[in-house]
Design a protein that fits this description.
300 residues, alpha/beta, Uracil-DNA Glycosylase, subunit E, 2 domains, globular
Length: 300
């Protein structure tokens, strides 16, 4: 049985892994487990989790993401764990989120920013987001410095990280063709993401990473002064709109985004990377583009 201090450290570490979006460990080479004797893949970590859960209280286990809690942890360990479909209930005592001082630092960093060049300098000197440590470049924006339409995606990918601009890979090329279909070009729009650095392995940015970058994004929106925002992808829509619905429920519906007391209309749509994988969904994206074109025309 683990000592209480060791157990607490493991619980804290696993909770941090969950916040960062880590729920699996991948090796350099694939392993054919059907030809290897011994325990099944992941058994070591499952055994450790069962040992942690057996000796941990409900408060310790409640810190762990649900996907990391073993199903046979026992009733004692699952006390206080939310059941699927049940109303959200917060535990009586909540530790202060670690992101608070980080977001406060981000807000302080952008407080005096008055231009996109100053915003880039603030991002380059900001060390509060762990994504920066594994990325090559900061991807702030491409397109016009001020634009009627601002497009906000999820995160830079490999090509974007190499070039230092958002949406320059295959998804970006498709986005350019989509914009051309409604008579818009790069010079007519301002394109960015909810995070400014490539997540490792091109994974989806976590809500915490988006929250850390949000003060910079809010200032960017204020500087660009768009008449409307097109939000691409589920992660971006949830972060910017502050909702939990999936992108298929969100897309095609105009929402209002409060940016420093100014309401900006925003429309969620499908990410071009998704359209590359699912061409049949392009018809839905086309409807959203037509809605954007009509909204722009009504504001001329």
């Amino acid at each position: 049985m683990l000592e209480s201090s060791e157990r607490a450290q493991l619980v804290s570490l696993l909770a941090w892994y969950g916040e960062m979006g880590i729920d699996a460990v991948l090796a350099e080479q694939p392993v054919d487990w059907s030809e290897r004797p011994g325990a099944a893949p992941g058994e070591a970590i499952r055994s450790a989790l069962r040992e942690i859960a057996a000796g941990a209280g409900a408060r310790d286990v409640a810190q762990l993401p649900a996907r990391l809690v073993p199903q046979n942890a026992g009733p004692g360990a699952m006390a206080g764990r939310q059941l699927p479909g049940a109303p959200l209930q917060r535990p009586a005592e909540q530790p202060k989120p670690l992101r608070d001082p980080v977001t406060a630092s981000a807000r302080k960093a952008v407080a005096a920013v008055t231009s996109l060049s100053e915003l880039r300098a603030a991002l380059e000197s900001f060390e509060g987001c762990a994504l920066k440590a594994t990325a090559r470049n900061t991807c702030l924006y491409r397109g016009a410095e001020r634009a009627r339409l601002m497009i906000i995606g999820e995160a830079p990918g490999r090509d974007e990280d190499l070039v230092g601009k958002p949406f320059v890979g295959r998804a970006g090329q498709l986005l350019d063709r989509m914009l051309a279909a409604i008579d818009l070009s790069e010079e007519d729009v301002h394109i960015t993401n909810i995070v400014y650095w490539r997540p490792p392995g091109n994974r989806t940015p976590t809500p915490q990473e988006a929250l850390i970058c949000r003060p910079f994004l809010d200032r960017q929106i204020r500087l660009v002064e768009p008449q409307m925002i097109l939000v691409l992808g589920g992660a971006a829509a949830k972060s910017l709109l502050g909702v939990n619905e999936g992108i298929m429920k969100l897309r095609g519906k105009w929402k209002q985004v409060d940016i420093g007391g100014v309401n900006v209309p925003a429309l969620a749509s499908l990410h071009p990377a998704y359209l590359l994988r699912t061409p049949a969904a392009k018809r839905l994206a086309w409807r959203d583009l037509l809605a954007v074109r009509a909204a722009l025309a009504s504001r001329n």
